[in-house]
């Protein structure tokens, strides 16, 4: 185990300035710290990288995925280099075939979705169409089925004849019925949503991810785009992981570059350029627009920042 610890320490030291290290997750009696699995690991490189990832604050699922990827990278290169970081799809068992070859792939959407506004209702959708926002999402919070149906219908009508693309969060049945451009789902929705129905209706699918394990899982469904976050702290939605930060976002974007990518979570005017430079083709914002005194002017300013 001393060799494993030494290799792990080398990895941690090599990436101390990469902005990938976060405070370790807080564990309790009901959620004990992870065990490093000696029995099922392929070799000591996998064990070392898993241990290093946990030391850098990755949750157990992500650390396990990273450990396996690191081992594959070492065997591919023929040597152990702690400075490197696994960034090739084959290290993570990402699907090797292209969208054209995959019969289960969802319809394509633009590689660069641009500034992506996540809006609370159809009135905000209308305002964003007027502001010429390229992509919007209706994230409606309601238990009233009739109200939900009406809001989705009005949002779809609002974008008709415009260049704005509309994704409906969660309510995929109504999105299919009313002919939306696409839907956005969380990982927890994949077990219950009728993905075949969404695909057969010609709707695009965006999936949320919060780290390596969820990105690898999302790849199995070949969605139209992958959202990655939360990049920074946000109080709008409870997240399953700590904010990922720019360092991790840059590595995620490099790995998943075959997909249209959306960065989301706590992004505002001050961080817009740094996020856009990660390689993502879209930056999603909420309060940066809805909390503005002049949303239309803010949209214009944010779009200029993305293009710089």
From TrEMBL:
Every Thiamine phosphate synthase/TenI domain range: 122-289
Keyword terms: Magnesium, Metal-binding, Thiamine biosynthesis, Transferase
Pfam families: TMP-TENI
GO molecular function annotations of the record: metal ion binding; thiamine-phosphate diphosphorylase activity
Pathway(s) of this molecule: Cofactor biosynthesis; thiamine diphosphate biosynthesis
Cellular component annotations (GO), alphabetically ordered: cytoplasm
Keyword Magnesium carried by entry: yes
An example Gene Ontology biological process: thiamine biosynthetic process
CDD domains: TMP_TenI
Superkingdom per UniProt: Bacteria
Protein name: Thiamine phosphate synthase
Organism: Polynucleobacter paneuropaeus
Source organism phylogeny: Bacteria, Pseudomonadati, Pseudomonadota, Betaproteobacteria, Burkholderiales
